[in-house]
Design brief:
Shape: globular
Number of strands: 12
Bound molecules: pyridoxal-5'-phosphate
Pathway: Amino-acid biosynthesis; L-histidine biosynthesis; L-histidine from 5-phospho-alpha-D-ribose 1-diphosphate: step 7/9
GO molecular function, one term: histidinol-phosphate transaminase activity
Modified residues (N6-(pyridoxal phosphate)lysine): 210
CATH superfamily of the largest domain: Type I PLP-dependent aspartate aminotransferase-like (Major domain)
Pfam families: Aminotran_1_2 (PF00155)
Strand content: 5-15%
EC number: 2.6.1.9
Largest sheet: 7 strands, mixed
């Protein structure tokens, strides 16, 4: 606290990211990173950028990456917005598209950065409870609103909404922007990008942090009608002209071009996830249906906070949320087969 602060800073409640421990031997199943590492082609492209050219500013528009994304999805580059991680993309979305008189709607259990952005930009919001099965209920999103946002698959539940349900939400609120945060879509959901042609109120966000294993590079994107993209570009160019550095543009573009590695590693994660679901159920966990690279589960006998502590003593870290409705759940990221087995072995001991 200091007399020098701008007034609003006193009231900020920032996001608390999952722990990034300095101890490298910990088995890290807490922040949904990808165990398989980035595409070797992405690494090679970044190595090639490490040159005297770094004295130059990067392309402010990241056209190389926009072209790669456009080709991957078969869309026009005018529908793509890029940012320094999808967190930054989301910040610009909240700032430029969600400041309205009516409240923003999002699920009571979802990405905990959403209320933080509302606090930063002074946006009113209404939490919409998930149903008793922890699912998004489409009918709950028909009230008048200043915008809607939800992750699909949802986080931290992992539950996915079918495309026709997403479409119903878009249809019911034609005068609001509906943002589908697809951070985990590549692990089992169907992207809503194809709906952008018919619904000018749709914005899809994606990240290279999860399915493309580039969390350290910080690249995210939004896809939607060029009118929405233009608002984001106006805000971005009033904030930071160069959110993506030269390495990020080159590495992310090469990652999108390497479809084979991407599909292979996603399949490996999905296979491990399905195995882990069966193993956890065998150990007395109730596991929510998941289409993500993590599992959300509660034990029918053991307290979640106790399990987290005991797992940590055995050098396995998982994520635990103190929020009331989900306080008995653990969120477990899918690791390598060896890491997953270490978790199962630790649970067996307990
Ligand atoms: C991980 C995650 C993000 C942020 O991704 P970055 O691109 O790393 O900033 C956004 N939304 C959800 C739901 C996430 O889980």
């Amino acid at each position: 606290m200091s007399k020098f602060w701008s007034q609003f800073v006193y009231d900020l409640v920032p996001y608390v990211p999952g722990e990034q421990p300095k101890l490298t031997k910990l088995i890290k199943l807490n922040t949904n990173e990808n165990p398989y590492g980035p595409s070797p082609k992405a690494l090679a492209a970044m190595h090639a950028e490490l040159s005297d050219n770094l004295r130059l500013y990067p392309d402010p528009n990241g056209d190389l990456l926009k072209q790669a994304v456009a080709k991957h999805y078969g869309i026009d580059a005018s529908k793509i917005f890029l940012g320094n991680g999808s967190d930054e993309v989301l910040a610009h979305i909240f700032h430029s598209l969600f400041q309205h008189d009516l409240p923003l709607l999002f699920p009571d259990i979802s990405y905990s950065f959403y209320p933080v952005y509302c606090g930063l930009y002074g946006i009113k919001f209404t939490l919409v409870p998930l149903d008793t099965q922890f699912q998004i209920r489409v009918a709950d999103y028909t009230t008048p609103n200043g915008g809607i946002i939800f992750p699909n698959p949802n986080s931290p539940t992992g539950c996915v909404l079918a495309l026709d349900a997403v479409e119903q939400i878009l249809k019911a609120s034609p005068d609001s922007v509906v943002v589908v945060d697809e951070a985990y879509i590549d692990f089992g959901g169907k992207t809503a990008i194809s709906l952008a042609d018919c619904y000018p109120n749709l914005l899809v966000t994606q990240t290279l942090s999860k399915s493309r294993s580039l969390a350290g590079l910080r690249v995210g994107l939004a896809i939607g009608h060029p009118d929405l993209i233009r608002a984001l570009e106006l805000v971005k160019n009033s904030f930071n002209s160069y959110p993506l550095d030269s390495l990020a543009i080159a590495g992310a573009a090469a990652s999108f071009k390497d479809r084979e590695y991407f599909e292979k590693t996603c399949q490996l994660v999905i296979k491990s996830r399905n195995k882990m679901v069966t193993q956890l159920e065998g150990k007395g966990f109730e596991v929510l249906p998941t289409a993500a690279n993590f599992i959300f589960a509660r034990h029918l006998k053991y307290d979640a906070a106790w399990l987290v502590t005991k797992l940590r003593e055995r050098e396995v870290i998982v994520r635990h949320f103190k929020q009331e409705r989900i306080a008995q759940f653990l969120r477990i990221s899918i690791g390598t087969p060896e890491q997953n087995q270490a978790l199962i072995d630790a649970l067996e001991e307990l």
